Amino acid sequence: MTSAPVAPAPGTHGADTPLPRLLARRDEARLRRYREYLDYHEGRRGGPARRGRERTLLFNYARTIVEKGAAYLVTEHHPVVTGGDPTGEAVRLLRDTWEANDLARLDVETEIDTAVLGDGAFKVTWDDEASRAVVSAPDVQGLFAWWAGDDVRRVWRVASRYTLDTEAFLARHGHAPRAVGGVRPDTVEVVEAWTADRFELWAGEDLVEVRANPYGVIPFVLFPNVPRPKEFWGISDIEPLREPLEEINRAYTQLSRILELSGNPIAVLENIEEARDIAVQPGAVWEVPEQARAYLLDLLQGGGVRLHVDYIDLLYRALHDLAEIPRIAFGDGRVERSGIALQMELDPLLRRIERKRLIRTAALRRRDHLVLTVAGHHLGRRFEAVETAIEWASPFAALQ
Predict the structure, then answer these.
(1) DSSP string of 3-30?
(2) Are 37 and 114 in contact (CB under 8 A)?
(3) Which residues is 209 bridged to in the sheet?
(4) Residue 106: which of 136, 83, 79, 69 has the closest Cα?
């Protein structure tokens, strides 16, 4: 028999160390991976090392592949209530929440973030002024999770770390951060810690608020891009592509330099101790002594360029294989294909979409459940019996 985890006393978290200080040392490897993947996606990594003033090429295939995959995965979709809603109130609530939060756009943006970093998240809270549920997608670089024993599905605490302007923090929470050396900082690092029964708010290392969780559930949905077996955090789409991305750009750069040198040929002089006024230009005449030889170095002879091009083609194929996005998904329709041949060629992409939609559907259903729970708490309604599903349009609906 496994007992439920017991939350530590407010402000202690099982030790005298404030929670924000503990988070500063938590999940360092995961956060380092996030920064690395973002560098690839933003084009700051993936090219050969620059030496001096040498020109290098960096084609940002990482961004292209991630956004292409997101476009095929996140097609038109919407929640569907399948039971437990005799009055239709849950249907109207979910529809209004979808429209008010522009969730079609939010889901596309979240999918790109999730594919890059390897993890995604939604947060559902209540806006008293607008009297509606608010759905957001917090940055997973600021999220931390605790789960029960070896069951990564049973999350019992989530902490969210972010930065606010001091004035915004004061207006939102009514607390001013502690001044340091008599000077109040311009920004404050905020940490929210949620369990099913308690909410804590930290400003820096000061615990400024502790109260009961008004929702009775943790208002976060955390989900992996692609799961690692028996682990909570997921795998980025960029992770298997790092080596081919770097090698393609190195090969492109090398070929570019060869072509550049061929357009500005190198003069080779043999058996000559000193040379002056050797100009490589049309009509140039070189005078060389007997037993000496002068010629232009031809870097293109013997089909050497073809070898480089063939190698780049192999790397290109490996990149598409690892990304599971065939070239035809990028609009390469140079060859006529039958319907069966087209389906077979797109099969890796279809399988990838199916795998990811299993994860996304579960996450979106949990998000809908949170919307109903949070809204029900403030509206005095109960939606525990409501069952929902997600309907997706075909990823190739636009082509049909």
Answers:
(1) PPPPPPPTTTTTSSS-HHHHHTTSSHHH
(2) no
(3) 201
(4) 136
CB 72 within 8 A of CB 329: yes
For 133, other C-beta atoms within 10 Å of its C-beta total 25
Query: What residue segments make up the domains of the chain, in order of their start?
Result: 21-141+350-399
Greater confidence (72 vs 305) lies with: 72
| 150: three-class secondary structure by DSSP | coil
What is the C-alpha to C-alpha distance for residues 365 and 361, in angstroms, rounded to an integer? 6
Give yes or no for a contact between 27 and 146, defined as CB atoms under 8 angstroms apart: no
Residue 269 CB contacts under 8 Å (≥ 6 apart), including other chains: 275, 278, 288, 292, 293, 294
Please state the rounded mean pLDDT for residues 326-352: 80
Measured CA to CA in angstroms, residue 315 lies from 69, 106, 240, 251 at distances of 19, 34, 13, 9
Work out the pLDDT band at 6, boundaries 50, 70, 90: very low
Are 30 and 118 contacting, i.e. CB atoms less than 8 angstroms apart? no
CA neighbor of 179 nearest in space, from 161, 204, 202, 162: 204
Cα–Cα distance list, 176 to 38, 208, 347 (Å): 33, 9, 56
Nearest to 356 by CA among 392, 320, 397, 316: 392
Instruction: Name residue 391's beta-bridge partners.
Output: 78
